[in-house]
């Protein structure tokens, strides 16, 4: 009997020793696994915290003009820009031990496990804020053990690599508050029409209650349940010492105004402009589509809302609804190249093709200011005269010839000055100048003006037969307006990432690439487009719109059979307008031929309302003298018409006009002496540009 008992004890001892050894091995494995998990988490490093967020497009005054999202409103707010009431309310109701644990609340976990075992299902959660944040960042929201294990691992990584403030900030920016609003900022704007840092205690307690069940506790779903949840949260805040009983009572009785509307709902403002911005983000900043659409970026653009609205209204009013003619328009600040308004077509919904940026069309005579700039650099002046008459140009090969024509086949049949040729848009003068200075000169000048479209080295290039873009012409004229400094079209001034860090900022330094003196001489010649003093065999080309202009502009029109242009500027703004048919049909309806000029003049006047009147300031190395427009010579007291004209210093005329001497009896020498006896008004000595 004793032998049997002894055997039993020895056998039980063997099992006990085996159990202890297995337990020790299991414990060692568990410790090893636990340490391994932490080492692996450390090796992996901090997990990325970025989540899909709405990218906002902002006008130059900070107004939101567009937003990209997949039906989810997300805006990142720094923890310092979230009301402390909301952070306290969230911690009180979601995870009161948040600052004490390392990602897991073991008491809550134990209670949840017991409840799950009792129900034989996953019925109760004990997730901390860290765990919920991990789930919001990386995982699906299904209630499975596999997901729980993955969530635990991500929680460990978060707690090992980020501070409590960073985790809380991330949680508050990713949690869902219902109605498409993700994060405290989007929710605050949606429910209360204010930023997250402006929430009152009552509003914060209401908001903190929504994530438990947005379809249940949203004040828009059930005011009664939302109020009941708010009361529970205020009590929890009081119990945890965040607020007093008086604070809770006051907040509970506060009457809240629920807005229920997302602030940034406008997505159709300047759609052509927004498309151009997205293209620039890809081509210039090398951002991919996902980053642009869901990166939570803030795109600060150059768009001026008032100018854009004016442009859209003017185009809609001017172009007949039943007309198939299209329009491309760009308004640009010449000082920095900022595009302040853009029209890419009559109707974006019908055609998103951007004719301001994408269409390459013949610019016609709007190319002539660039030609005359090149000529002035080679010694031409506004008073240089060339014979204007029907001309056929024959070339060295003996076979090719070219016979350009003036509009309506009108010619001076005599010599005219460059200033008058530009104002009347004389084609013979332009082609002769082009051939005289060399065809390479215009091609090179066009490049210096920033135009990248291919130019054909042919005689007709002087008449704008090689296509360019509207933006290119506006940019070229900007360089005349700003005194010859290099510009390029700018759509984006700054880009911020979701944290508010600046990842791109437009450069502001501009290189001097043109002669400021020659640029100003051309600019002043371009003001002659509206000056009847330069009328000759025809009226100046801007005469049809000059009556509505209230300040000085420099401009040039251009037309081909299929394209109509008007471009020009003040010191503050450059605008280029093209109108025509997409398929290149001839513009034959009379009204349609005037669209570009009418749109340009209407817009320039509207855009300049409220702006100070500025004149084009002559550089020091230019000289302004009064000339007789027909001859280009110095005007005398007997000349019926005289016009202030600027020249590069040293190139101004020295010969006086003798065409209007009385009976031609007075010699030029006597007249010269007589002329200088004429007293100049005092104000012209101080302000020589006054007429």
From TrEMBL:
Q: Which GO terms describe its cellular component?
A: outer membrane-bounded periplasmic space; plasma membrane
Predominant location category:
membrane
What GO MF annotations does this protein's record show? Answer: penicillin binding; peptidoglycan glycosyltransferase activity; serine-type D-Ala-D-Ala carboxypeptidase activity
Protein's cellular compartments: Cell membrane
Q: Which residue ranges does the record assign to the Glycosyl transferase family domain? A: 62-238
The portions of this protein that span the membrane are 20-41
Task: Give the signal peptide as a residue range, or say none if absent.
Answer: none
Where does the Penicillin-binding protein transpeptidase domain lie?
328-604
Which key words tag this protein in UniProt? Carboxypeptidase, Cell membrane, Cell shape, Cell wall biogenesis/degradation, Glycosyltransferase, Hydrolase, Membrane, Multifunctional enzyme, Peptidoglycan synthesis, Protease, Transferase, Transmembrane, Transmembrane helix
Which GO terms are recorded in the biological process aspect for this UniProt protein?
A: cell wall organization; peptidoglycan biosynthetic process; proteolysis; regulation of cell shape
Record's catalysed reaction(s): [GlcNAc-(1->4)-Mur2Ac(oyl-L-Ala-gamma-D-Glu-L-Lys-D-Ala-D-Ala)](n)-di-trans,octa-cis-undecaprenyl diphosphate + beta-D-GlcNAc-(1->4)-Mur2Ac(oyl-L-Ala-gamma-D-Glu-L-Lys-D-Ala-D-Ala)-di-trans,octa-cis-undecaprenyl diphosphate = [GlcNAc-(1->4)-Mur2Ac(oyl-L-Ala-gamma-D-Glu-L-Lys-D-Ala-D-Ala)](n+1)-di-trans,octa-cis-undecaprenyl diphosphate + di-trans,octa-cis-undecaprenyl diphosphate + H(+); Preferential cleavage: (Ac)2-L-Lys-D-Ala-|-D-Ala. Also transpeptidation of peptidyl-alanyl moieties that are N-acyl substituents of D-alanine
**PANTHER family reported in the protein's UniProt record:** BINDING PROTEIN TRANSPEPTIDASE, PUTATIVE-RELATED, PENICILLIN-BINDING PROTEIN 1B
Q: Which family does it belong to?
A: In the N-terminal section; belongs to the glycosyltransferase 51 family.
Name the record gives this protein:
Penicillin-binding protein
């Amino acid at each position: 009997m004793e032998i049997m008992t002894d055997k039993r004890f020895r056998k039980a001892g063997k099992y006990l020793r085996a159990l202890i050894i297995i337990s020790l091995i299991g414990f060692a494995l568990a410790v090893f696994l636990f340490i391994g998990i932490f080492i692996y988490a450390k090796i992996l490093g901090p997990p990325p915290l970025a989540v899909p967020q709405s990218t906002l497009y902002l006008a130059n005054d900070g107004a939101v003009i567009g937003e990209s999202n997949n039906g989810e409103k997300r805006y990142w707010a720094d923890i310092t820009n979230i009301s402390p009431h909301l952070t306290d309310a969230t911690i009180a109701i979601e995870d009161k031990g948040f600052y004490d644990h390392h990602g897991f609340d073991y008491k809550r976990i134990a209670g949840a496990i017991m409840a799950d075992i009792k129900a034989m299902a996953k019925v109760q959660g004990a997730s901390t804020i860290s765990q919920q944040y991990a789930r919001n960042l990386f995982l699906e929201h299904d209630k499975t053990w596999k997901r729980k294990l993955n969530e635990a691992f991500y929680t460990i990584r978060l707690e090992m690599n980020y501070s409590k403030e960073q985790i809380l900030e991330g949680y508050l920016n990713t949690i869902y508050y219902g109605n498409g609003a993700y994060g405290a900022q989007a929710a605050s704007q949606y429910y209360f029409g204010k930023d997250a840092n402006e929430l009152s205690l009552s509003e914060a307690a209401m908001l903190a209650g929504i994530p438990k069940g947005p379809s249940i506790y949203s004040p828009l779903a059930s005011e009664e349940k939302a109020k009941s949840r708010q009361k529970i949260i205020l009590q929890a805040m009081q119990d945890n010492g965040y607020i007093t009983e008086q604070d809770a009572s006051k907040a509970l009785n506060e009457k809240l105004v629920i807005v229920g509307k997302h602030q940034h709902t406008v997505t159709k403002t300047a759609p052509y402009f927004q498309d151009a911005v997205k293209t620039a983000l890809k081509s210039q900043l090398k951002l991919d589509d996902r980053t642009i659409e869901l990166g939570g970026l803030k795109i600060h653009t150059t768009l001026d809302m008032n100018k854009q609205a004016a442009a859209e209204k003017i185009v809609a009013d001017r172009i007949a609804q039943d007309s198939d003619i299209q329009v491309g328009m760009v308004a640009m600040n010449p000082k920095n190249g900022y595009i302040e308004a853009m029209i890419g077509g009559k109707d974006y919904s019908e055609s998103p093709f951007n004719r301001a940026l994408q269409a390459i069309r013949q610019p016609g005579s709007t190319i002539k200011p660039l030609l005359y700039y090149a000529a002035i650099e080679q010694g031409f002046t506004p008073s240089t005269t060339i014979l204007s008459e029907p001309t056929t140009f024959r070339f060295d090969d003996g076979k090719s010839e070219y016979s350009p024509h003036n509009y309506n086949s009108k010619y001076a049949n005599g010599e005219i000055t460059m200033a008058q040729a530009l104002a009347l848009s004389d084609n013979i003068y332009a082609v002769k100048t082009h051939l005289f200075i060399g065809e390479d000169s215009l091609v090179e000048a066009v490049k210096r003006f920033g135009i990248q479209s291919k130019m054909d080295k042919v005689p007709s290039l002087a008449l704008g037969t090689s296509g360019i873009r509207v933006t290119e012409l506006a940019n070229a004229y900007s360089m005349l307006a700003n005194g010859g400094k290099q510009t390029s079209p700018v759509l984006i001034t700054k880009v911020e990432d979701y944290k508010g860090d600046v990842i791109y900022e437009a450069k502001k330094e501009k290189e001097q690439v043109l002669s400021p003196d020659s640029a100003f001489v051309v600019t002043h010649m371009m003001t002659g487009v509206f000056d009847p003093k330069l009328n000759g065999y025809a009226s100046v080309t801007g005469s049809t719109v000059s009556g509505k202009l209230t300040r000085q502009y420099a401009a040039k029109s251009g037309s081909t059979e299929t394209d109509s242009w008007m471009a020009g500027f003040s010191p503050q703004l450059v605008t280029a307008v093209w109108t025509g048919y997409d398929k290149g049909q001839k513009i034959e309806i009379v009204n349609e031929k005037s669209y570009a000029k009418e749109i340009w003049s209407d817009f320039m006047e509207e855009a300049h309302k409220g702006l100070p009147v500025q004149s084009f300031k002559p550089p020091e190395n230019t000289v302004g003298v009064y000339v007789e427009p027909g001859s280009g010579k110095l005007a005398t007291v007997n000349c019926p018409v005289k016009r202030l004209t600027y020249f590069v210093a040293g190139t101004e005329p020295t010969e006086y006009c003798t065409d209007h001497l009385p009976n031609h009896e007075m010699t030029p020498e006597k007249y010269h002496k007589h002329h200088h006896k004429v007293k100049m008004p005092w104000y012209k000595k101080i302000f020589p540009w006054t007429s």
